[in-house]
Amino acid sequence: MRDRFLDALTGRRLGGALFVLCGLIVAAIVLWPEGDDASEPRIQPVRIVSIPQLGLTFAHPRAWRRTVAGRVIRLRSPEGAAVLTFASPVAGRHTAQLKADLLQLLRKRYDGARIVRDGPAKLGGRPASSFEIAGVAAGGRETRALVLVASSRYRTYAVTLLTPGLPSAKRLAEAQQILATVRLVEPVVASKG
Fold this sequence. Notes:
Elements: H1 2-9, E1 46-51, E2 56-61, E3 65-69, E4 72-76, E5 83-91, H2 95-109, E6 111-123, E7 126-136, E8 142-151, E9 155-164, H3 169-180, E10 183-184
């Protein structure tokens, strides 16, 4: 089952699924700078994504497209150059194992994949483990992948950002803003009745 999540997380498998979003939604306004005029920031519409069953909440610009495949949520920037994926494939704390599995999978997927950074990070205010690799995707395109893996006492979460070898500063800033909105809380178990 974990293999299906890993495949969906890295884009080899995109299944269509309707994911019911329920629970409390946090009202927020996020500033998304647009254009080169820094003196006049523009507020762009955002979507709040709350998945109480996974204990995961984040916000993203409406211009980014969202798809869902099981416990994997994929965001794609308007031109498709940046892909940000959120997943929680396993219950409990399995940070080291999930990180190792993702590294192995990405090394198989990208020719000449090499680690360009490996170290601590933060996700949703929690300590996370991260790595960044660079390699060549199918079609000969240089690709970079940033992976963040964090655990709560309830679930393990993985976030992957895929970009071209030289991503645009604007898309990287948007991805950083999305990651800054991530909140990991206790999952809500649906009651039967």
